[in-house]
Amino acid sequence: MVHVIQSRSIAALCGSLLTLCAAAAEPPAVPAQASSVATPISRTNDSGSVAPVPVIAATAGDAAIAAQWNQILEHGDFKQVIGTYALVTKLETANDGVKADACSANADALEAALKINPVGLALWYDAYQCAKALNQADLAEQRLRSFTNLVGFALRSKPPDWGDTPIRVLHFDDVVAFIQASGEKVLNLYVDRIAGSRYLPVTVVLSDSTHHRVQILTFDFLDAAMRMARDPNAQFPKVRNLVAGEILEALAQSTNGQGPFAQALHLGDAMTKADLKSRVQALNSLAASGNYVAALRLATICLFGKSGNCGAEAVDALLPWAEKHDPEAMLWLAFAYADGNGVRINVTDARRLIEAADHETGDIRMACTFASLREGGSTEVDPVVRPIIEAQAREGEPHAQFVIAETAANAYFKRSLSPAVRAGLHHAASSGLPEAERLWGDMQFQEGRNDEGMKWLLKAANADDSRAQQDLANRYAERYNASPIGQRNPEDRELSREWNTRAAQDGNVEVMLGLGYFYMNLPATKNSLREAQGWLQSASLAGNVEATLSLGDIYATNAPGLDGDASTAAKLYQAVLDEHPDNPNARLGLAELLVLGKGLAKDLQKARQLRADAAKTGNAAAEYVLGKDLLYGQSGSRNAQAGIAWLKKAAAQGYTMAKVDYADALFSGIGVTRDAQKAVQLWQAAFDEGTWTGANQGAWYLCTSTDPALLDPKRGMRFANELENVIGIGAAELDTVAACHAASNDFDGAIRVEQHAIREAEKMQPLPTKMIEALQKREQLYKQHKHYTEPFQ
């Protein structure tokens, strides 16, 4: 499929962030200290992107460190902060110690760097080692305390979700410092990058010699870098994907193409293979060469997805790691034994593998993961791990309590949760488990305790649970839509948009697509088009076909400043048809270009055929488009009767715009006997269903008709008032409102609204010159205290 994602601004952003991997500049002078005030969520900055959730202190003692993090993320100079890591190379020896002479020579620079970057683990650890090497005992103790406080904060500030939320750092050197300070042996280090995720997770598996267990820690420095960049494009997952790729390439080069970063690049190449067989072959080859994540990917495809008839290959890839007591490898082998996929079925062995995996981690994370993966539509925990989960839930283990509640919640709408399961879920939520907070919050809404539900959803959303963020956005939208139009709170609508943005930034493809639609439906300004393009590109890169088609719709406008034009749109539509020959929306997109002669040579006959073929699939949107085409003769001869029939078909399927156009035809008497009263009813119904075009069309026809029997400014003004209360209407809708003011002899109001319409039109991309001329003519008409009328057939 054709994807157009590169732009000059994105390329520049990727290039600037490569200093994450090779910071070579001298640490700059210490800047003046700024206020360390955390930036709250839910405020849009001048670039149009959303202010991220601030770093929140886990305890009162963590407040100072949280403030330092917020200061850097929201106000720190990216180049200055990342430039401080140049000192690490100067100070450290090949065996991870420090050179005393280098410490002495760079003492002032190190002090300056610690003021610029007070949260850099690598800087504080080297500072401690330098003080120790220079026999400065008191200073060494002070710096070690600062380092351990930062480490403690990092571990305390993340939710108890077993690594789903990575530890925030600024640089890979911070990860290395953490490992060095632990004194533990590294059993595994890997990068498992998921396209669309806000993170570039680096996972370290350490041998915990104290407890004779493994310690699994996941770090991320991509999110911090993107926040410090403060580029309006940095909010889009597609940009994070590009930057993550650039960082991986730089780190892979720094290790001569060896190690986990190179393996992550190879894995990315394997996952882009077009067909499943080729993908499995590539992953199998990588796994055989020691690529751990490739073995896990094979497991998800062959064992979880049960695709490709490759269970035995996945088992072979996992065995070497299971023999090394790797918990995740044992988890997936348990999956294979439970299903008899690639091995002979043996439930007892499956349970033993899970128990062995959990023995390694010292908790029940693998049992809980297994249960969640096996949940499906079941209302009971999988028998393989049920005894483990239930026993732990009785002991009050939050993850076990959540797994039982989540599984039981599949039947929640048919029956209530038992008191014990309900109490367990509440305990899990109260323990700070984000998934449990989200589920408990949703349950409160279902039971009518909306304020309580909102409180719990906010907790989970602030902990970066993307499902909670989406649920919270939906709750704000519901509250907004439930209010009478004139009493709706714009803050609710804005909060819905902002939490949806957070969910999309966390990799929720469904929400990316929804945001793309949201911005597409706003007036076509430079900012709204940029936002729509960014979200649709992100969803398209994640494989969403509807996003690819909608991206084509934006490019078809030939608006300036985008990454594509009408010819790009044609390629996108055709690429979708190549993969999905019956896709009606791809046909409609190509047909529109053929009618207009944009991006393709004009061909009305082919356009009509494409529209007819799309409508024959039963797609309501296609039926609507063909109906309009036949009614008005857009791509050939008119057949008003057939056009009305197609509009009725689409309307019968609930396609609201078909109701609007059928109402237009009824009012004008085109292809059907005129019935103005029924037209008004249909326009109102369409508006009540959430399509403001219903009110726009009703107001326009009733306020501008030359037929005295049809002209009804009073009823038209009611539509106009409803329309004016809608947030986000554009120049065309404002023009309608102005016409109704004039028809009601309110010429001052007409002039005021028409001038607003002109200002909005002047923001549109591409500039609608003819529209602006028409708006200006109507403004002059109103200044002469004249109505605007438009004849209808």
Helix content: 55-70%
Extended strand count: 4
Radius of gyration: 30 Å
**Gap from first CA to last CA:** 45 Å
Q: What proportion of the residues form beta strands (DSSP E)? A: under 5%
Largest sheet: spatial strand order: 1-4-3-2
Low-confidence stretches: 1-49
Structural class, by secondary structure, is mainly alpha
What's the story with the biggest beta sheet? 4 strands, mixed
Number of helical stretches of at least 4 residues: 40
Write up this protein.
The protein has 793 residues and is mainly alpha-helical. Strands 1-4-3-2 form a four-stranded mixed beta sheet, sandwiched between helices. Helix 7 (121-133) packs antiparallel against helix 8 and helix 31 (604-615) crosses helix 32 (620-632). Mean pLDDT is 89; it is low at 1-49.
What is shown here, in short?
The protein has 793 residues and is mainly alpha-helical.
Helices, strands, pairings?
Blueprint: H1 8-17, H2 63-75, H3 78-83, H4 86-91, H5 100-105, H6 107-116, H7 121-133, H8 137-157, E1 167-168, H9 172-182, E2 186-191, E3 202-208, E4 213-220, H10 222-229, H11 237-254, H12 259-271, H13 276-288, H14 292-304, H15 311-323, H16 327-339, H17 347-361, H18 365-373, H19 386-394, H20 398-408, H21 419-430, H22 434-446, H23 450-462, H24 466-482, H25 490-505, H26 509-520, H27 526-541, H28 545-555, H29 566-579, H30 584-596, H31 604-615, H32 620-632, H33 640-652, H34 656-668, H35 676-688, H36 693-704, H37 713-724, H38 731-743, H39 747-762, H40 769-783
Parallel strand pairs: 1-4
Antiparallel strand pairs: 2-3, 3-4
Helix pairs in contact: 1-11, 2-10, 7-8, 7-9, 11-12, 12-13, 13-14, 14-15, 14-16, 15-16, 16-17, 16-18, 17-18, 18-20, 19-20, 20-21, 21-22, 22-23, 23-24, 24-25, 25-26, 26-27, 26-28, 27-28, 28-29, 29-30, 30-31, 31-32, 32-33, 33-34, 34-35, 34-36, 35-36, 36-37, 36-38, 37-38, 38-39, 39-40
